[in-house]
Design the sequence.
């Protein structure tokens, strides 16, 4: 029943029952972690076969003739560039294959921009009086942490149903040349699970930016991470930028962390040839090359786009039931109460949950006191500050089903308690 | 016979014969690369067993309880920290295990110092009017390339038989607070093969530096890379710094690139706890963690210091004959001519060869025209400028014996030609 339509006495009685339920759960001394988008053990098992590759010395020589065990090849073996350029829908000479972390590639890209500028910069960004980034929010806390570390001023941009609020984005980048970038997780966004519409992609590619060296940081972390067969499609941003006459505008990032192994995957970035050349020049001073053996393992295991897609279906078969369980519990416990809303994503790693304004921190705190850790409220916003104190990120993949059920039941109880108190003004 | 003691006519006749030999070699259309310190194929075979590890899912869980396949552990699995801290003679909490490249860890350390400062800095180095590094030379070109990229002014320091010219080092660091660092390859140095004496280590640890946040960049690349059983010993720099009351003065770097696989090894850095804590704080914004699966592979394969030492003996058995061949050819062809000198290292990857002043570039050029590529003359000095134009770095490990023989014979011919011309003034 809609909490707003209950009379005070009814709501108070409900609150008493909820408080008793909460105390009962608390007495169970739970110790559950719902805070991280980590694959579960069953997902890790899916890629064990990969560790058998390359298998023997002769297999360590790639078809293109490189011994992956030795030094050399700055930007990845051609076979890995071929495979992953298909995944990102770019040309093989528009991709750089790196180590095991796309986050590192993003950090390094920001770091290089600050110290040396990007292709087309007249001055390193750190030499400017100020640098600002647009941060569609809720978003990925680690993106915001990088920009904050480098002293970049972050401007929160609302997320709509089909991507960032483009009216605001267009207005700001047109008038302020200190705005140098925007963070985007364009597919199955973290945490909202939104995929940017074609219109949003086109507007990002075409918009006039006062800064000539403006960059879109396009973290395509969930590019093939579908939960259903009827999955979202994301328009090709690099192609859109080229068509718009802004070919150098975008840096694309991705990894196999949630395809093969989070701790031992392969990261990559893609961009125009101009960007790639500028980056490779600097990269060559940092390293002789990435771990090519692991790149070869990936190529031999995943083989081609068909291989990747089939592999991702196995992931979906494991985690989709967990997403469904979360959504069912939310629907059952909160569906008729008008105190919360949440996303129903077609892919990615999160369900984004919104309490009534001003309730999220208290809910997370109560859950924690009962032994269930959620991502801190606010973490999904620049500087850790959710202006509405409303968003909670739910990560359903890691816990076993029985733990997930327990954690979600606790969450729904906490949400009801905090909401009821809010309505009652106590 | 000593070239200087030959009369002009004699020397001219010799030159004619040498020129004919050179043309004959040139006619063979060689295509050999002697420029890079790369392990040869036989060395790569030594570590193939490592690729069988971990082997199965249950083995992916470390004794300390971490699933190396998943996210987490910023500074390396405890088992890798334990093993490699013994190799570097530091405590396990004084080490950070990284990805596959120690060069990247050095680059990142310089980059962080420029942008954020090091532990104890009052201001990031890039905010200072100028930053200088001391560069004992000949040294490693990639060290110098990093400092040059970041706009650091490099001061060439002579290498003596037991390390850098410490009188000059001590005088400069005492009087100039813009000198923030010194590059050192203290064991089997690149390219001279020198191991720093205890006295040099102590003087580096104890010297008064005008800059309070001065750092020794201690690239211990060849820490266990002995060629003989009776090998060099290097004094423990971190311990010496602690004793001297300068515990935070040194950053130590190393990797398994030339222990296991150059393309898929494990890199590491070590320093005082204060330094390690400051670095980890920043590192945590760049990555969730390094490739732990590869770290576990290394631990399971190398096991302990005994394992590492036995493994390195197998490397020595392969490459020592190559060093001996180079030294024998040099002795046979040039030993009595008084036109060159060279190192006879107990370890490492190079033989350092010195022509008469003003001859090295011409020798390298002639060799290149006859199809044999050596490291460009000057590369071993800051800004690529050898003040004496004398040093040539010989890398004997990669080529098969017959190629190595050919390349060295060519080199000795070129050295004689250029020297004879120099003496004759033609």
Sequence:
């Amino acid at each position: 029943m809609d909490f707003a339509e209950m009379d005070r006495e009814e709501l108070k009685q409900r609150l008493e029952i909820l408080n008793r339920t909460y105390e009962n759960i608390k007495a169970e001394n739970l110790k559950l972690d719902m805070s991280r988008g980590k694959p579960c053990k069953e997902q890790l098992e899916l890629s064990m076969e990969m560790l058998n590759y390359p298998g023997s010395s002769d297999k360590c020589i790639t078809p293109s003739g490189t011994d992956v065990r030795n030094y050399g090849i700055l930007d990845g073996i051609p076979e890995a560039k071929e495979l992953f350029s298909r995944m990102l829908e770019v040309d093989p000479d528009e991709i750089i294959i790196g180590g095991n972390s796309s986050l590192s590639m993003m950090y390094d890209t920001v770091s290089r921009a600050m110290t040396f500028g990007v292709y087309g910069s007249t001055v390193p960004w750190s030499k400017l009086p100020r640098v600002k980034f647009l941060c569609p929010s809720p978003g990925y806390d680690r993106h915001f942490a990088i920009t904050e570390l480098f002293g970049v001023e972050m401007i929160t941009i609302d997320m709509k149903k089909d991507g960032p609020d483009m009216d605001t984005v267009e207005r700001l980048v047109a008038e302020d040349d200190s705005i140098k970038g925007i963070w985007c997780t364009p597919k199955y966004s973290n945490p909202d699970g939104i995929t940017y519409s074609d219109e949003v992609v086109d507007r990002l590619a075409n918009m006039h930016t006062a800064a000539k060296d403006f960059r879109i940081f396009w973290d395509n972390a969930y590019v093939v991470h579908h939960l259903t067969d009827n999955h979202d499609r994301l328009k090709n941003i690099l192609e859109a930028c080229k068509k718009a006459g802004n070919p150098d505008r975008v840096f694309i990032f991705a990894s196999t962390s949630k395809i093969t192994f989070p701790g031992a995957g392969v990261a990559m970035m893609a961009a125009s040839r101009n960007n790639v050349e500028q980056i490779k020049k600097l990269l060559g001073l940092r390293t002789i090359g990435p771990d090519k053996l692991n790149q070869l393992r990936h190529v031999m295991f995943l083989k081609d786009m068909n291989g990747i897609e089939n592999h991702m279906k196995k992931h979906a078969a494991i985690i989709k039931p967990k997403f469904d369980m979360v959504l069912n519990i939310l629907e059952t416990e909160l569906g008729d109460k008008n105190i919360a809303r949440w996303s129903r994503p077609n892919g990615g790693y999160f369900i984004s949950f919104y309490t009534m304004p001003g309730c999220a921190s208290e809910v997370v705190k109560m859950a924690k006191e009962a032994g269930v850790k959620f991502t801190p409220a606010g973490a999904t916003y620049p500087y850790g500050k959710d202006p509405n104190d409303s968003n909670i990120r739910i990560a359903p993949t890691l816990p076993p089903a029985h733990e997930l059920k327990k954690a979600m039941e606790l969450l729904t109880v906490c949400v009801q308690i905090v909401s009821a108190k809010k309505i009652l003004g106590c």
